[in-house]
Amino acid sequence: MKQVEITLNVNGRDRKVAVLPRMTLVDCLRDILRLTGTHVGCEHGICGACSVFLDGEPIRSCLMFAVQAEGHRVTTVEGLLKDDGSLSDLQDSFWECHALQCGYCTPGMLVASQALLDEIPDPTEDDIREAISGNLCRCTGYQQIVEAVQMTAKRRREGAAHG
Amino acid sequence: MKAAAFDYVRASSVDEICRLLADAGDQERKIIAGGQTLVPLMAMRMARPDMLIDINDVTDLTGIDDRGDHIAIGSGTRQRALERSDIISQRLPLLAKAVRNVGHQQTRNRGTIGGSIVHGDPSAELPLAALALEAKIVLRDLSGETEIPLDGFFEAAMVTNIEPQQLLTEIRIPVWQNGATGTGFHETASRQGDFAIVAAAAQIEISETGIIARAAISAGGVAPSPVKLRAVEEALVGASADGIAAALGYIDEAIDPDTDVHATADYRRRVVRELVSRAIGDAVAEASR
What we know:
The complex is a heterodimer of chains A (163) and B (289). Chain A has 163 residues and is an alpha+beta fold. Helices cover 35% and strands 15% of the residues of chain A. Chain A has two domains: 76 residues, Ubiquitin-like (UB roll); 74 residues, DNA polymerase, domain 1, CATH 1.10.150. Chain A has five helices and five strands, in the order E-E-H-E-E-E-H-H-H-H. A five-stranded mixed beta sheet of chain A has the order 2-1-5-3-4, with helices on both faces. Chain A is globular. The N and C termini of chain A lie far apart (56 Å). Chain B is an alpha+beta fold and 289 residues long. Chain B folds into three domains: 48 residues, Uridine Diphospho-n-acetylenolpyruvylglucosamine Reductase, domain 2 (2-Layer Sandwich); 115 residues, Uridine Diphospho-n-acetylenolpyruvylglucosamine Reductase, domain 3 (2-Layer Sandwich), CATH 3.30.465; 107 residues, CO dehydrogenase flavoprotein, C-terminal domain (Enolase-like, domain 1). In chain B, the strands form four sheets. Chain B has a five-stranded antiparallel beta sheet with strand order 4-5-10-6-7. A four-stranded antiparallel beta sheet of chain B has the order 11-12-13-14. In chain B, a hairpin with a 2-residue loop joins strand 6 and strand 7. The longest helix of chain B is centred in the last third of the chain and has 24 residues. At the A-B interface, strand 4, helix 3 and helix 4 of A face strand 1, helix 2 and helix 6 of B.
């Protein structure tokens, strides 16, 4: 089996990599591109830790081979940062609400929550729980994660009102 | 948990896919679209194809087309596209209810309707809704295409009647044109978005006199494949709302549940009756509005 050369756009930059077809997108991101913010947990689409955006929509990067990402746009948790490198409002809320303990699920939770807020700026608690239902967390009991998403939505509303 | 090595081809047309499948020889060649069922199977080494044929670039295989008496859905259409489609919510409300129970946002963004059907998971929601509505599917190979009923396509758990050289191209789901129609979809799962332990789908048409004129009922997780409950449908037609309980008596002989790690056969027998009852109840209430 030989390597295939592909070009994909990751966090706004075109990256050229050579991969074996069997390499998953998450392994390519972590092991070749050294973007270790995306975590790899179960490797068969259960835990959600590897969630990234593909062309603006959240997906599981362990359920896609890197070769399939040729010509596509990938955004990882590193890409959620503000341009100056500081935390986004959602990441700030996670920190303030103690929405993480061990941090393993956090990149996936951030991607799932960001995707929800992109689609529904003012989500109900049910919306939030549904949006993160594909992401397992063993530390927080989910409550603080829900609160962090609610805090972000509230601040964005208030910011918009003042702005 | 890494897939075994394979060759990868990104196909650009239906003809190219059919040719690659026909030329497989001794090789096992598999289609990959969303990969939400296939990739886990490969990671667990339950599938070891020699070649993956990626059909994601073939736009002929995607789209939702209203053809009057039925809706034609390309096999490569993502579950997320079904969820967001006005055609589906207005013309196939049962499918719209079913798709909300399929996986999570991350999997619906990749997973396709064709993948849901062709893998034949006994508790998958889309096959269940499509079966209730007597969908037909189109299989294509180098010699041309065949349309077959979905009923009979599911052979056993994770086994369907598709030949290695065939490609599923389209799913055609009839639209009920007359009268007041309602739908219901219920399932029980360990967590939101998990595969159903038991699921039930119902679509009911009510006549002007309040009598059930037409019924489509199916259940999943109670046999190796989804089951169309024809005896229940027949018992419902001509009945009023009071006749529903009697029709439920016909469920038992149509199902063959198994005990597994998620639930016992006895539990499934009891739960399916309740879920079918709720699905029919919702459908009748909606149709009577």
